[in-house]
Amino acid sequence: RKSLxxxxxxxxxxxxxxxxxxxxxxxxxxxxxxxYQIDLTGYYIDGQYIYPDLITRHLNAQDATKRLELEVxxxxxxxxxxxxxxxxxxxxxxxxxxxxxxxxxxxxxxxxATYSVGQTAAVSFELAxxxxxxxxxxxxxxxxxxxxxxxxxxxxxxxxxxxxxxxxFDSLLAGMKIVEGYQPTSxxxxx
Length: 191
Fold this sequence. Notes:
Layout: E1 8-10, E2 24-28, E3 34-39, E4 43-50, E5 57-63, E6 68-76, H1 83-92, H2 94-97, H3 99-105, E7 107-117, E8 120-129, E9 137-147, E10 150-158, H4 165-174, E11 176-180, E12 189-190
């Protein structure tokens, strides 16, 4: 993994980054005839990062209440795995993936569930605190989408769970798409 120091920070002002306006973010590579899209309506974009490889992109966003934190990554895929296989590998190594955070916060994953929403393979779980961190609970939902040796990974987390969150999470995951035969526009983000 590349460190944050090696990131090239790019702040993009887009009209769709205003909460409440319909906004679909598109990631497209000039050598392809397809694109990733994700519906970010209702989220405010904090920032976008482009790695020096000019392929890997990272976006941070949050909802109007600042209760829901969202991260979107588009990156080269490792191996030739489907979206479901990428998700299942992540779940199989969940303790390893979350290792540093779990040790630092004294948390462990609970209520792990795998499912699919549209084209997206998803996993949801809670990080529950123990010891000094008893009472700490974060809901985490991740979506995985793979196509043509790249993948889009979405991470959504919230500290304070409320009724309707699952539907909201699933709506976001359903908004992750691969669009074949995509015709680029001037507002696309190159992958």
